[in-house]
Structure formats: C-alpha cells, structure tokens
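Supplementary notes (optional reading)

For those who missed the lab, this is the record we used. Protein: L-cystine transporter. Length: 468 residues.
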Amino acid sequence: MTLPVLLNLATALLLLGFLYHQQRRHATFTVRVFTALGLGVVFGAALQALYGADSAAIKTTGEYLDIVGTGYVKLLQMIVMPLIMVSIVAAILKLRDAKSLGKISALTIGTLMATTAVAAAIGILMAKLFGLSAAGLTSSAAEVARGAYLEGRLADAQAISLPNMILSFIPANPFLDMTGGRKTSTIAVVIFAVFVGIAAIGIADKKPELFVSFDHAVKVAHAIVMRIVTLVLRLTPYGIFALMAQVVATSSYADILDLIGFVAASYCALLLMFGVHLAIVAGTGLNPLRFAKKILPVLTFAFTSRSSAGAIPMNVQTQVQRLGTPEGIANFSASFGATIGQNGCAGIYPAMLAVMIAPTVGIDPFTVSFLLPLLAVITIGSVGVAGVGGGATFAALIVLSSMNLPVALAGLLISIEPLIDMGRTALNVSGAITAGTLTSRVMGETDVAIFERDDDAEVDSESEITPA
C-alpha cells in the first residue's frame, strides 16, 4: 500500500470518526445523512483533483471505501427478503380482511403504473424542449463495447412478454426467491407471504390454538427483523459518505460536459416528476413540504446507492415512523415499487432514449402514431423491472426493441450513466413512497399525528428510525 493511499484512508477514517461523533452527540438522522453526503462530495472531489479519476491511488482507495459503502448496501439487501416476508404476513394476520388486501394491492400497483405513464410523458416533453437527439454523438471504445453488450441482451428483452412477465411473479421456488435469485424475486416473495398469511387466517377458526402459536411466532420474528433493520440503519451516514466519495472521485467531468444537455434534461424531468409526487400528496390533504422533508434521508440513500431494492428497509421505516403509513401498506408499496412502475428507470429514461434515437432511423418521434404506442409500451413494460443496478438498461431494451429502434445507440450514454442513475433511483423510491401514502390515505389508515410530528425534535429510541 502506497503512502498516498494510506493518507487517503487516514483522512477517510477521520471523517467517519466525525460522523460517529455526531451520532454520539445525538444529532438528528437527517443532519447526519446530509453531513455525510457533503463530506463524501468534498472528499471525492479532493481525491480526483489530487490524483485524477483513473489513477491507481483512487482505485485502491475505492476498494477500501467499498468495505463501508458497498458493505452497507449488502447489509440492507440481506434484510430485504426477511423484512418483506415477516412484515406482510404480520400485516395480513392483523388485517384479517382479503377485500382490503386486494384494494391495497390494486391502489398501490395502479398508482405506480399511472405515475410511470406520467413520468414517460414528462421525459418526452423534456427531450423535445432540450432538442435531444442521438444523431452526431460520437462513440469511444467504451461506448462501442456498451452497444455490443446491449445488442447481446436484446434477445432477453425480446423474450419478455406480458404473460411471461406475470408468470415470472409466481414463486415456483420460494426458497430461491428468498435469496433474490431472480429479477422478480421481490414480488414473488410478496406473493408467497400473502399466501402464508391467508392460509394462517384460514385456520384461525378451525385450529385456534395453532393460529395463536403461529401468530406469536410471527410477532417474535417481526420484532427480531425490525431490530436488525434498526441496527443496519444506524450505519446509513457512513455508507452514504463512502458511496458518494466513490461516485465523485471516479466521475469524468469531461464526459459530463459533453453530454450536459442530456444530463440537464434528465434532471429537469426528474425534478418535475418529483413535483407531481408532491402534488399527489397535497391532493390527499397532507402538507407536501413536510412530506418532502421527511423522505429526504431515504431519497439521499437511494441517490448514492443507486439501488431501489436496497432502499426497501429504509423506505418502509420512513413510511411507518415518519409518514404514519401502516406497516402492511408500506411494505406493499416499497416492495412493488422496487419492481413495478419505476418512475425514473422505467418511465423517464426509456422515453427520452426512444425520442432521441427515433430520428436516426428516419422516424418523427413527435407524432401521435409514435407517442401513443411508446407510452403504452413503457407503462406495460414497467412491470417487472429489477430494482437493482441495470434495471433502467433492461427497461430501455424492452422499449427500444418493441419500438423497432436500434438498441446499440443507448450505449452512447454510458459515460454519464452513474450520474443519471442516481437521480432515477431517488425518483423510483419517491414514487413508491407516494403510492404508499396515497393508498394509506384512500384507505383511511394514515396516522396523521405521526405525519405532523416534528422529527427533528425526536429523541433516540429503539423504535425510531433515528437510533444512536
């Protein structure tokens, strides 16, 4: 290990020590998260200024930062499936009403798909306003390689039809899905948990003593899983610091400037769609500014980690303990939102790509005959998009191949992919939370007292999302 790397790691440890000092002094969760974000940006920028984005020193430093950043994401992924399983079973046992369960599912999925259609329309609008086009973009070796990779994935995308996608939700092997072994494992675990919960309710009258034992076991498992969630979420500021430092240190500012039009259009579309989410929340009678403030920490994590699925535990905790959404609804919206109707990855991104690429094959993208099929394909294709890195790529492949557009041209944006993906993931999570909030309000289940509570005044406790 070289002296520069040792100095880099020593500096990183000092900054992590400062974050720990904040935690010991009981700084609020929001303050600690945004402090970590700021320190990560400054540290990453300093590394790039000193060594350059492709230097060996940054690469080696990044490998050690991965222990904190990627390690934190893996811990969150570790608890996703157990959290979904026990929380949904517990919610069904408490609900005891299949009709309410169906209404919750329909409202959640309907909101996710409807907002994805709106997101796609906004993406198209931004592409037109910014005059985006793939014509004239140059390809380096990396872009050519990316294009070849996308063409290699084309067969997988073309093989996905709506019936096949729906079939993939069925958990033929729930133990495999508990490992997250398939793209649709999250929904498959939700479905399996629903079956377990309904089956348990079915024996409540026939074998009450067994039901009582099972109900107690689920409550114990739920308490343990939620304690694990609490322990892992304590590490959030440290993970955000390491993840953000990595992104900033390795980003190519020259490539970002070359494609600044697409970057600007993308973030304008993302911000506008976030405004739509706030408008939906306002329409339910809740204060949209308070809503935005309460969800900022989880959006910050989603932004830095680029993992909708990894954000599920924090998503659920935020909805339950900051927004007043019942745990069952929160788990449904967070789980479905990581795979269905991702506003950023499956809505805005494929729509902008399609509009950019269409002129290269002589198609006018701003005609009704092109736009209506495009919106339909995006909305339907948003079902089953994986909530991990690469989900946007798969969504783009489905849309571009369905519209008979060349998929290789999507590889021209590889250099700015991480920067765009950060914003897309944050919007995905915002859409999932919005769906949960809307469903909770329509069902009359929101605890308004929790929503109105000032989180900055909260003290640390075992049940809060802000443990110390």
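If you only remember one thing from this example: The chain has one domain: 3-448.
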